[in-house]
Amino acid sequence: MTLVRNIALFAAMLAAACSSAQATGAQDDDHLSAILRNFDRNEPFYVLGGTSPANLKLQFSFRYQTFGDTKSESCLEKENVYIGMTITGFWNLAADSAPFEDTNYKPELIYACKSSFSNSSPYVPAIHWRAAARHESNGKGGPESRSLNKVYIEPALEWGESPSVQFRLAPRVWTYFAIASENADVAKFLGHASLAASLSQKDKWLFRVTGQRGDQARRGNLTVDASIWPNWFFKTESLPNLYWHFQYFTGYGENLINYDNRMIKALNRSSTRFRIGFSIVP
């Protein structure tokens, strides 16, 4: 009887342990789901390749909602505060050791929300408000060190609702502070304002033009991005959620190490780039 009682006691203890583990597992799954819900898109997420010289441009970007795990419908709530991070790398495949020429890090504290007007005319846009404090650096020391800080605001106007065609106009203005001495003249080349205009249709295509004017005459840059979703073109669900991505850049400041094109000129290389690849978040 003692043996039977001990076996029964052990079985009860094992069942209780399993039940507790299942409950803990369920709680862990819920907690993980809540964390994942807090991640959102930030800037484009892509891998692009070009020639003359052979190079890759990689960008990874996300933002994390710091309070709660649901989206706020009001612009006066703490749920609109995010921590963002964008990393852009430039991989020179033409060099002997195939080094990364530069890697730019952009952590930022973001406030973002959307204002829409119910029962309004289709000619009245929704307004996506975004304000942030951002640090930008390339993580290097000595003469190749580049670092700056900025505060910017971006009131983006958007016409049309998904899944129809949408047009977006996004002016951004900023001011600098705590600029490193190695790039003290950065405003001459990158200025204090940019304007992005895009036309898109969800899960089909996106076309965007971004212009930035430097404070000095004939400075600034122009970027043209075009993305196409293969599933829309091929009518199949077997492809991953990737977009073909085409990018054209000309001007100054594509990366921090060459923001003034000084090193590019020394290497007798153009500041114009055309790259093709894929993006996850165009």
Descriptive notes:
- It is a single chain.
- The chain is an alpha+beta fold.
- It folds into two domains: 1-37; 39-281, Outer membrane phospholipase (ompla), Chain C.
- It has four helices and 13 strands.
- The chain has helices at 2-37, 186-190, 230-234, 262-266; strands at 39-40, 45-50, 55-65, 81-92, 100-115, 126-137, 147-159, 165-177, 193-201, 205-213, 220-228, 243-251, 273-281.
- A twelve-stranded antiparallel barrel has the order 2-3-4-5-6-7-8-9-10-11-12-13.
- A hairpin with a 3-residue loop joins strand 9 and strand 10.
- The longest helix is centred in the first third of the chain and has 36 residues, at 2-37.
- The protein is globular and about 55 Å long.
- The relative contact order is 0.12.
- The model has no long low-confidence stretch (mean pLDDT 84).
Report the radius of gyration as a whole number of Å.
Answer: 24 Å
- The number of helical runs is 4
On the 0-100 scale, what is the average pLDDT?
A: 84
What is the architecture of the largest domain at the second tier of CATH?
A: Beta Barrel
Q: What attributes characterize this protein structure?
A:
282 residues; alpha+beta; Outer membrane phospholipase (ompla), Chain C; twelve-stranded antiparallel beta barrel; 4 helices; globular
